Amino acid sequence: MSSSDSAALKVSEACYRAWTGGQIDKALTYLAENVVIEAPNGRFDGHDGFVKFAGDFAQMLSGVTLRTALGDDTNAVLFCDLEFTFGAHSLTAQHDVVRGGKITSQTFVWDQLPFAQNAPRR
Q: In this structure, are residues 19 and 96 in contact, taking their beta carbons and an 8 Å threshold?
């Protein structure tokens, strides 16, 4: 992956900006119906899975900084800082696979320790 203006990257960044901005319905327009999301907190399938995964995060975000993004025709990788309303800060990597103009899979990796140390107790 080398291009910062690839087709996959454009779709991935648009989806990222939508969901981190709390626009979950808009983010869904960039996802295939059968998208698969894998993250440290589980696997989420389809649009309903994305809503469950991203909706919870979007409500807790207080800041987002996209540090870098790279892509090619079918892959995009985003590296960002996420800040949460309860004080946690987490570096996060996201890998998206794009086919036919839609994201078919997303894999997220993040450092869970800051999140676990600061997460609100239920």
A: no
The domain over range 7-118 is classified in CATH as 3.10.450.50: yes
1-42 confidence digits (pLDDT tens): 444 578 999 999 999 999 988 899 999 999 999 999 999 889
This prediction has a pTM of: 0.86
Contact 116, 107 (CB under 8 A): no
Neighbours of 30 (CB within 10 A): 23
Q: State the chain's mean pLDDT as an integer.
A: 89
Distance CA 65, CA 19 (A): 13
> Which tokens is 65 given?
């900084």
